[in-house]
Amino acid sequence: MQQDILINWSPQETRVAVVEYGAVQELHVERTLERGLVGNVYLGKVARVLPGMQSAFIDIGLDRAAFLHVADLMSSITSRHADADNTAALKPIEKQLFEGQTLMVQVLKDPIGTKGARLTAQVSIAGRLLVFLPQDNHIGVSQKIPVTQREDLRQRLQVLASDMGGGFILRTNGEDATDAELGEDIAYLRKTWARIKDAALRLPPTSVLHQDLSLLQRVLRDMVLENTQSIRIDSREQHDKLKMFATEFMPATLQRLQLHSGERPIFDLFNIDEEIAKALGRRVDLKSGGYLIIDQTEALTTVDVNTGGFVGARNFDDTIFKTNLEASQAIARQLRLRNLGGIVIVDFIDMVQAGHRDAVLAEFQKQLARDRIKTSVNGFSALGLLEMTRKRTRESLAHQLCEPCNACMGKGVVKTARSIGYDILREILREARQFNPREFRVIASPKVIELFLDEESQHLAGLSDFIGKPISLQAEAAMAQEQYDIVLL
User: Which parts of the chain sit beneath pLDDT 50?
Assistant: First the structure.
């Protein structure tokens, strides 16, 4: 299946869409102001050594000095695999560092609030399939890869990386990689490390030696596959920069890189903005007339399949089966499109025939096999729910582009105007028992005030008679439905 990669670039935001046969399969968004520092390598300068805390503050050119603990400092007797809590075995930091000293450091955690960045002197460089450990000779395999495969993969990697110095860790998505793909990643990582070392010799202290790749560069490193026929970008400046990057690190991608210069914006060609809007909604309509309802919570994501208006099959069982088959394709696409990770529960329409369940499960697994992110399907549970997991690699599209609603505070629903009206009546009664004002004034949304003037006017008048105080009403258009104030006059 041929795919095209479309890149829409602007100074404030980069957007990438992966398109197959005219349908968007993946969306990636990176905003300039939200790019973190994690992974960046600096030539730091020791600003202060704190023997009592066995740590040091390092100037890396930011507003606040960054923090480096002795356990994250490379030394001749400090093992990379030592227990970080066993600081007694480490050489004291005051015997390793002094003020004004320069050393290469990497950011582990971004600055938060008043705290500076957290650093390590144990540099690691991430590639598409591997992580390179230039200061170590350790060969490792991700703990998420099945135990039965780890030893074979470790031996393969040891052969590929032999006599080159440095260590490697195989990432989860490198589990099925060929030797050629691993070799390309090793070459890229070594070339990157050579550039970092060269920069450390040329640049002054507090300089950035290496920045984690931007989304544009990660497109070439991570997203280009054998079936990628074109990579189109709508910025001449960024196209030229990508050509330089590709020439040095990814020469095989050069011939597919194209500058989009048409009159229509590149995302208009495939209605990408419309797809983004759909990917932020709960409901996904299927071509047959059925639909999905997708809800994302803190713990998991749920997908509910419904037949909707689909009545095309000859009998009810066939209608359900065909809807579930179509839904399995749509769900796999939505997981990629929305970048939904963690636990996913799919509630397919109940199928009586075991053969239908097996066919739907096989189709779903076939569609998931196209996902570049690792997935695991556990099959149907005793309750008929399909359980699966998808590795979390970044924030979901909704979390990137949206924030909780101020009106409902993320609940997704608000109380009815009548419910708010009754809350107000109870609150007035409570206030009347504690205070003795001349009058109560209710300030609320127009819909709530309208309810008091019409359907609930009798209850409001009854309460006023009961407490012996007048109750006046004031509509405030700026107030959300759940907001109100009771003013004592």
Answer: 75-88
